[in-house]
Amino acid sequence: MCSRYSIEMAKIEDASFIAKFQLDMAAESEGATLDYSVVLEGVKLGIKDENKGIYLLAKDSTNTIVGSLMITREWSDWNCAWYWWIQSVYVLPSHRRKGVYRLMYCKVKEWAEEQGISVIRLYVDKTNQVAQHTYKSVGMRESRYILFEEEL
What we know:
152 residues, alpha+beta, 4 helices, 5 strands
């Protein structure tokens, strides 16, 4: 089903594609307008420093980037183990419902199992039913936790 796609880690030269994806994702999922230069700098710093995150790319058979996501880490003292968070998920509309996210998630899960990661988490907007369905379809389930935040 997904053999026409490949998954690889992002390189610094991929930063502009990822930043554009983030602008599109913010507008589409939350109606938010982000500053491209700020997002681009954030992506570049993330790619350069794996402590900030790891970016994965999905490419089609023509080597065009069609999707991306970022993995960040959280330490759990309760379980004495690392958790991974999937963030910044975006797949081009023309490649949705074709298994691109499933393939990226399979790669994340494979790496997580190899590294002894205890839990994979992500958060999704409450109103984004399509994304929630996608996450459930790969085996994720709704958590018992509610997310709180305060912008400073």
